[in-house]
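Hi L., both proteins are below.
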Amino acid sequence: MRVPSGPENLIAHLTRIKELSGLSVRALARQSGLSSSSLSRYLTGQLVPPWEAVVALCRVVGRDPRPLRPVWAEASKAGAAPAPRRNDLPADLADFTGREPESALVEELLREAGAVAIDGMAGVGKTSLAVHVAHRLAPSFPDGGLYLDLRGFTPGQEPLEPSAALGRLLGALGVAHPPPDTAERAALWRSELSRRRALVVLDNAVDAEHVRPLLPGAGRSAVLVTSRNRLVSLDGVPPVSLEALPPADAASLFGRAAGVDLAEEEAVAQVLRQCGGLPLALRMAGARLRHRPGWTVAVLAERLRDNAGRFDSVFGMSLHQLDAAQRRVFRLLGVLPGADFDAPAAAALADMTPARVTSVLEELVDAHLVQEPSPGRFRMHDLIRRYAADLAADEEPQADAAVRRVLGHYLDQAAAHDRALPLGKEGPEGDPAKAMAWFDTEYANLVACFDTAVRLGVDEVAAGLPQAMRVWFFRHRGTDDQVRLLEAAASAAGRLGRDRQRAALLVDLGFARAAAGRLDEALAAYELAARYDVDDELAASLALRTGFVRRDLGDLEAAQERFRVARTLFEKIGQRPGQS
């Protein structure tokens, strides 16, 4: 007799769960918070479900999922397959100039050691070199290229913690619900990379400890790290330090950016000295000259010399070519929450139409004050962002109002996209795939907006954003930020006097804590939610989830009592358990 394989055994259990539920695939998917297509693939063996999906299915029919854990583990091991090729790398610079020795060295060290740390001062071109090399080596890494900004020196934002960074990297590889422990995530990350040949760019690390858990282990994947600090304590990761561009390369880059013949040798030398050989400053100075066809290099050198400070003079000169509206948008971008943005976000910030702000952004890109790493996505170099923020503090009295407009914009967009994601009894409004992609793209910005809302006391946004991210959190991010956001959101709802919203947030908080293994804290959240007078639908969900936690804590009598209450309430509102 043939012994069923791991996947076949799991399929049999999942099929039995479906039979016990008495539901169609579509209805069962809706009640468990899964998509119909995913559930179909789980039931037919095309895809091994994440453990959280197995738990969700078991809870629909009131079964204890723990006996299925070994079955699921065996199926996962047997059915694991590398994720499709993914490429998150920013676009390579069209005018990348010089760095031939450094590029060759980085490529050689990557082949030998599998990891390289590029260090150097701000504006020297660390990210540009890493991305340039990554694009050159892309054919050697058929499983794709991953890019993650660790925000080590981004003005107005905290560095991305290793645990959160691992969560995002694992998510990029298709691991929807990584374990909560940082060490377990690091081990899973190394395991996932060992089955692939991928190139990872970890940009903007603070120090060695910031990036150490993110390094790959054995295997054929490789990693490029950039930092302003020399990461000498990373064993097995050779450092490559970048200095300013040598005069010949600096002149070539300046000439390409300016689009002119550099015949004025003395004036060119003055500009190069003023820019310090830094690619960022050279591109901006060249763009300034390109936009002033009546100027000579000597005129540019004189204007730069008349301003104090190497960077302020270059940045200030670039601003002078802009009109008042363009300068205002530039200043406001310095206070925009998040790392990157699109035109609608900038439009909300500046209180402009998307068409008008798109035109402004194009001018800022041409002036090298804003980057466009991919079509329709914009960002600012950290140095320029800090300069813009300083200008906003001095010259933009409406900066706070602009930030509040952006917070409202992201809340509205998150709520609209959340309505397109299937969960619960209501059908989705819109395209679920597009909605999920929007959350994937904007996740870091949504968290940054939430933190800004808490800091500014904008309780409407602080209470609303985590609710709008509820389905997406359940499917993709586990408990990384969810617990922290829900705790603060529940407090914000309390300050607003919204008892129903606070209770709903506390129920979600209990679920997030339970998923993280913090059962006592989950029960505390549920008990606090139970103090509020809520509708039958929320009360039913609360009773059901409290029963699950009581059962997992070993209090079976209390669990059964909660299950009976939940069943009564669900029957009263005409729903099956787990549908809310």
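That was the first. Here is the second:
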Amino acid sequence: ESWLTVKGNQDRALHEATDERLQRNPTLAFVVSEVGREGVEWCQALPATAELEDVLLCHGTPASDEGLLLEEVESGYPRLREPAKVREDLEAYASATLVLCGHTHLPRAVQLPGGPLVVNPGSVGLPAYDHDVPCFHRMESGSPHASYAIAERRGGGPWSVEHFRIPYPHEEAARRAGELGRPDWQKWIRTGFAR
């Protein structure tokens, strides 16, 4: 079965990885070694956005896999953006009634007034992190559980969404991150916090 998939910033990083960057980033080196050349090429071939009828998929924003669609960073932490700013980012996709995005790893659903339902399903495997783009900030889901969402529409009506958090062997994943030289990821995976 084929799943509609879009490229995220980490998928792009796999393809852009240089030998020097692989030496400095043990996580990237591990992923490249695990997925192999074929996996890297598959990630590179993914589209940045995808549309299926009135559904839009993007990783960050339609214009950037590192953009923040629903949040903006203030004082090192995310807060919801004004709906008008989100709509500006979605202007070219006015017919979308459902927008599926990611990047922040924060599960949420935001109904834009007079516009689409925007859903971030959260993360399976990295429930918290810190990053320096656009400035230093922390994203924290507050739970080590895997997160996903199911959106459905019945009879042409409005979209509904359910978010789920399910346990998985996150302690094992955290231990492995530590073994691979990522004590930061170890903490993030174990706790869902980046402090």
